[in-house]
């Protein structure tokens, strides 16, 4: 897979919330005022249903509560936790390494200013919901064009509805990786109020678009975890 530069596309705003979670060992709360304070169970619930896309988790030197919470998050989401920024007094401590091993996506000092927090959130958002201003080269004769929102199959251009294109872009940008329904909700900018089966419906519609070109089997279901784009090599 290769990303090829192109003119910027319009960025669609993401409607999902950022939550803040403060564990008992944390000396101070997160300094980001745009996030919504919640407790540990509420954060897990809202991530699971897609009502939030990121958590700012603040801990002290004792990271036991933080790592236990991260492990609880990993299991129901099929190991796809890439939405948690952990704030610690010392980001080079053994506890910091334990937080990363448990599933934290990034670490920041506990006294990080709001500007640094928002910059880290922006990087996280770009990775989970790739912007479609470029192109994704799936294979030599198979390419996604973000400017025209089409799938180029040799000399043929297949136009896709916006939601199905964003779904295929998210899967194709990480071939072989399993993306959880929560990650795909974010990539497709699905509001939290949408039905829980919205991702499954979008996958079915995408497969119908790909079936005439014998590409529908590339969108694979990994039961209990999510979906992935299978490469031509893995299908042989």
UniProtKB/TrEMBL annotation:
Pfam families: Trans_reg_C
Annotated SUPFAM superfamilies: C-terminal effector domain of the bipartite response regulators (SSF46894)
Keyword tags: DNA-binding
Domain of life: Bacteria
CDD domains named among the record's database cross-references: trans_reg_C
Annotated ranges, domain OmpR/PhoB-type: 133-231
DNA-binding region coordinates: 133-231
Cited InterPro entries: OmpR/PhoB-type_DNA-bd, Sig_transdc_resp-reg_C-effctor, WH-like_DNA-bd_sf
SMART domains on file: Trans_reg_C
UniProt GO MF annotations: DNA binding
Keyword set includes Ribosomal protein: no
Single GO BP term: regulation of DNA-templated transcription
Record protein name field: Transcriptional regulatory protein
Annotated organism of origin: Thiomonas arsenitoxydans (strain DSM 22701 / CIP 110005 / 3As)
């Amino acid at each position: 897979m290769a990303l090829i530069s192109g003119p910027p596309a319009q960025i669609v705003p993401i409607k999902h919330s950022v939550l803040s979670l403060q564990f008992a060992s944390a000396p101070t709360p997160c300094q980001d005022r745009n996030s919504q304070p919640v407790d540990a169970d509420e954060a897990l619930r809202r991530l699971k249903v897609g009502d939030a896309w990121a958590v700012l988790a603040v801990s002290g030197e004792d990271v036991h509560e933080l790592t236990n919470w991260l492990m609880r998050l990993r299991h129901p989401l099929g190991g796809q936790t890439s939405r948690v920024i952990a704030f610690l007094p010392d980001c080079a401590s053994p506890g910091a390494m334990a937080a990363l091993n448990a599933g934290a996506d990034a670490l920041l000092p506990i006294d990080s200013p709001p500007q640094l927090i928002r910059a880290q959130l922006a990087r996280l958002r770009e990775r989970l919901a790739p912007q479609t201003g470029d192109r994704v080269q799936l294979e030599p004769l198979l390419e996604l064009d973000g400017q025209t929102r089409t799938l180029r199959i040799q000399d043929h251009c297949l136009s896709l509805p916006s939601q199905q294109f964003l779904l295929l872009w998210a899967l194709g940008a990480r071939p072989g990786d399993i993306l959880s329904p929560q990650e795909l909700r974010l990539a497709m900018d699905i509001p939290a109020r949408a039905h829980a089966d919205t991702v499954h419906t979008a996958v079915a519609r995408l497969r119908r678009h790909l079936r005439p070109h014998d590409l529908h089997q590339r969108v694979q279901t990994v039961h209990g975890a999510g979906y992935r784009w299978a490469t031509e090599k893995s299908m042989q």
